[in-house]
Every structure is written in C-alpha cells, then in structure tokens.
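WARN retry 2 of 3 for item q-0093 after timeout on previous attempt; input resubmitted unchanged.
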Amino acid sequence: QMGISEGNARVKLNRAKEKLREIIND
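OK item q-0093 returned
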C-alpha cells in the first residue's frame, strides 16, 4: 500500500510533467 505522502509526490510529479510538455509544445 502506498503512503499518502508518496501518492501526493506522484501527483505533483505528473502535474509537473504535463506543464513541462505544454511548455515544450509551445
């Protein structure tokens, strides 16, 4: 079972990746 802090870290990482893709595509 994944801890809450680890889960939040993954969510933040995924959001950062999405923003990075948007910047690269623009």
